[in-house]
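Weekly structure sync, notes
Attendees: PL (lead), two postdocs, one rotation student
Agenda item 3: pending single-chain targets
PL asked that the sequence for the first pending target be pasted directly into the notes so everyone works from the same version. It is reproduced below exactly as submitted, 433 residues in total.
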Amino acid sequence: MAAVEGLTKIPELRRRILFTISLLAVYRIGCHIPVPGINTETLSRFFQTNQGTLFGMLNMFSGRALENASIFALGIMPYISSSIIFQLLTVVWPYLNSLSKEGEAGRRKINQYTRYATVVLAMFQGFGIASALMSAENANFVLFPGVKFKLLSVITLAAGTSFIMWLGEQITDRGIGNGISLIIFSGISAGIPVSAKQTFQMVKDGQLTPIALVIIMALMVLVIGVIIFLEQGQRRIAIQYAKRQVGRRLYGGQSTHLPLKINTSGVIPPIFASSLLMAPLTIITFLPPNPVSDAIRDVINHGSTLYYTAYVSLIVFFCFFYTAVVFNPEDVAENLKKHGGYVPGIRPGKNTSEYIDRVLSRITFGGALYLALVCLLPDFLINKFKVSFFFGGTTLLILVGVALDTVAQIQTFLLTRDYEGFMKNANLRGRRG
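Predicted structure, written out during the meeting:
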């Protein structure tokens, strides 16, 4: 309600929202412009029969642009992969580690390297896609195969990814919300009407009872509520600052807290876990039928005990791994010690670091189990009700997380403008004025 009222009263917020919507519309239009020389009808049928492989997940994140052989077929995944790689390198590479501590100038330099790496990754992936389409036997994906097709595909797909990356940065700077996240959000949301239509068609055909549909919808609302509750959940560690006397003034003495999120790693663990498990299935897709590939497909396919065990284990592992990358208890304890802060009852320094690490490990384990349960829910619905559930676990996490982040930024924008209103008509002068 506050956002709607602010939209009518604050011109700048209205401009930012309209700017964001306009650029997202440009992205959605580009998702329907095909790369020259590709048979889109044949490719679309291929993706419909391979939704459970890595291609299906990439197609989902690209907003079905990969299925349409669009110029945006690679989506924003090369940029995300490049960002994750540089986040990991920042921990192990002293040069990037020193850049990250140089403030805004260092972050701009790292972002520049990330953009360069995105273009390189996009070119490699574009070359791989073009080669795979040409090498597929009896598929007729490519109308005019050859070196010119590969070169054209690599240039087109890399340029499309670069343009999406630019759109995301423009939304972040001049729009509202995180541009990259909103692009992923819009791509996933574009597939909801089609999946919903398929589900209701199943009800009409008698494949799904109305009662089962009501149960699914109620369960979906319940899961969304749980995700909202846990994504905003925090474990607050009390922090006390010692009093310091500088001259005649007394500084410090205030109490605050250190918030630790239940899900610090976000949606990265499910994405990594799904990618690793779907990679073998994707490779098997291009192999001729044989007993070995059939046995591997049966063992690691959706619904098998080994698949679920590996999926949950990978999610838990990546939750701890990525949390360790983005949050360092030793740095937090050192900064608290420098500024005179301490946890009541805990000695500053090493003991504080161990205490924060112990608390963080406990809540990270709980967050990992929560992510695993949310991601396994769609498989339960598909196997139990035999329905094409249009909200996957990873999909649901992204949609809810991006929506919460965007609403929080709108509220922060409104709050900032309200504070500016206190000073709007003030006539401030110096002591001699």
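Discussion points:
- The longest strand covers residues 234-241.
- The chain has 17 helices and five strands.
Action: rotation student to compare against the earlier draft before next sync.
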